[in-house]
Amino acid sequence: MPLHVPPAPAPALRSVLAALGSPAAVAAGTPALRAQQGPLTAELPLPVHVLDRLGVSQPGTPARPPRTRLVGWRFLIRAGERHIAAADVRLTADGWAFSHFFEGPYVAATERALRQAESLGKGYQPRLLSVPELYMLTLWLHGAVGADASSGLPAASDLLVPLAPAPPGIAAYRPHPVSELLPVMTHRLTQPAPPVRPPLATPAAPAA
Prior knowledge:
This protein has 208 residues and is of the alpha+beta class.
């Protein structure tokens, strides 16, 4: 079933297209962009949310609900038959503005996860959800396909697909219901620090 990719804000798209049309911006981008001779297109805009509160609280106090915030939009940059880079757009005091081009494992990982999500047999609104404390990026498949892509919390039945490279012990590309993966991530952040070994005893100084 096709994904319901949300439309990006018009100023965000315009800023990416302007960067793609700027030889200076492309020249300052990635090696793959600089080497490309043909046309470049921006597609598959994904809102980028940050999960910055995982119910972590002080001992003895109620757990706080998770909180997400929209920090930008990410576009995959196509050259011919493949995506060779991505472009990030950030919200500034003057509105949406192009931030930078980049390439690397998350470009191919995002494309792979999107293809995988299309075969799940259910409609989703794709988003990206970052967990900075775990150095983790996931494809967030939101079940409310018509929802405002700039807001909302992960529902228990939504799916999170960790992108590679994923943290140790968390399988990349495996869809996890939020109700299953969120406790795992919370546990990772609340694990007690390993005990610190006491320093070795210092030998007594010889008597004078």
